[in-house]
Amino acid sequence: MKTRDRLRIAMQKSGRLTEPAQDLLNRCGLTFRQSRDKLFCFGEGEPVDLLLVRDDDIPGLIAQGVCDLGIVGRNVLNEYRLTGGRDEAPLAEWRALGFGRCRLSIAVPQELDYQRPEQLTGLRIATSYPGLLGEWLQQRQIDAGVVTLAGSVEIAPRLGTADAICDLVQSGGTLVANQLREADVLLESEAVLAGAQTLPTDERGDMIELLLKRLDGVIQVRESRLLLLQTSRGSLDAITRLLPGGPQPTLLPLAGQPDQLMLQALCAGEVSWRQLEEIKKAGAREMFVLPVEKMLA
Ligand code: PRP
Ligand code: ZN
Q1: In this structure, which ligand is nearest to the CA of 56?
Q2: Are residues 29 and 170 in the same domain?
């Protein structure tokens, strides 16, 4: 097989991860031109192309070397690690991407008083994640039946084909609508960047390293805010104590006012109105909260 010289990233064609994944790659400076069949996107600036596929196919495409990287839920990646092809390249989670957060959970009918996993003994549990569920049950030495379904897992208890389910929960709306209750969490999931455990040694490997560095910058600043304010030296300690996380603030003297300072602080997350009001009470004025677009450490 002729080796590719362009990097290929697989991502979900249409679903919860599609838009945030596209957005993340755009923020890393990658732009694409979509083909007419909407399955392939050609990278315009960098030699990086996208393949739009079903999320469940992504780990296999990487393991078989069709794609170098994939943006996929940790749930899908870990399930594949347990049930996928045995002689394929082992896969790694290169980065957690901070979107598409959900849980893989056991859910039971609302009337069942669930206290501990042992209560599942002898029950039939419907799931699309037989690998992860099987491993969880085995670790706890629980003997339960695993009913593997491709979809619509949540209706299995009502249909009488299972007593409980093991499925993804995000808002919890699906469970409520089906009179089910979340009982135990098997896995905290989010979108991750998956790839082979060893990077290719050619230009594609260099491109992956570059992309990882850009991703780190994007992920780091995505939630960061730059807080600017003015204060007198006397209030500085009180204000510094209220600053939400992040590295040491920078202080600049105001021209012609030796007692007055301008403070600049990088905050690790959102700065709420409440926090601003507290900081103002401590003696700050002229406060600004700015989003951070790029950061290169
Ligand atoms: C998942 C899961 C549930 C639903 C839970 O399906 O299978 O049906 O989301 O979300 P909620 O707690 O916000 O209601 P998804 O929409 O990802 O589709 P899929 O099962 O076809 O992958
Ligand atoms: Zn799916």
Answers
A1: 2
A2: no
